[in-house]
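Hello forum,

I keep getting stuck at the same step: I have a sequence, I want structure tokens, and every attempt I make locally crashes halfway through. Rather than fight my setup again tonight, could one of you with a working pipeline run this one for me? It's a single chain of 283 residues.
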Amino acid sequence: MKSFQNVLDYVIFTMGDYAFRVSMIVKISLIIIIAIILLWIIKRMLFRHSEVNEHQRGNIQAVFQMLRYLVWVITFGLVLETIGIKVTLLLAGSAALLVGIGLGLQQTFNDVISGIILLTERSIKINDVLEIDGNVVKIQSIGIRTSKGLNTDDISIIIPNSLITTSKVINWSHQNDKTRFRIDVGVAYGSDVDKVIRVLEESAFEHPDVYDRELTQGRLMGFGASSLDFQLLFFSKNTFGIGSIKSDIRRNIVKKFDENNIIIAFPQLDVHVNAINKTSKKT
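Reply #2:
Ran it on my machine without issues. Output:
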């Protein structure tokens, strides 16, 4: 037992009055191991229900992310205390330095604060489909500084959290699992309005990703300069793949318009020339 204590008290290196001992390595290792085990237990407790849906899993993941950061911050502080560095004195003595670093890393801190807001407020969750600056992105993970998403081209995008909290963001998955979309089309004047509306609705009905037949609606929106302007409204649960769905429905519209002799309008300009008769008089 005494020999084991001697091993723990063995000095690896010294620096002035400071001595780094084997016992410090043991304590640091135990702190890190306890932190890892604690995180494993927390994760098992949070994810113990396998039947949760994607939105609930996203909320649980956000909570676990916050707890993980908290555990590692406490662990880091305990490690510093173990090797003899007083965290409170370190923060007080380096206040001026921290101010300088804060000014230099202002954007980074902004992203970190935004990440904390996202994780606590949970207005944005994993698997939510967002429209940010005109780009449609499906959120895969929310970190403390950045979030990772997948766009419609299956390309991973790293998004600074401050961009999500400070920009205008459309969350297509926030309240409902289905979203309403629209397709605009103009037809030539003289077309049968009721037939056009019926053909538009039938074009949407044929697509398997259109949610509800009763909620699908064709409308006459206005009288354009060269066309009767219609709008097709429909709901779909496949928000992320809506680009392909709209393309398929437009193909159906073109096909059915051809079958029903409905002409898609194009810009036209009628020019009327009035002939002016001039009678020349001989002098």
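The chain has a mean pLDDT of 81. If your local run keeps crashing, start a new thread with the error log.
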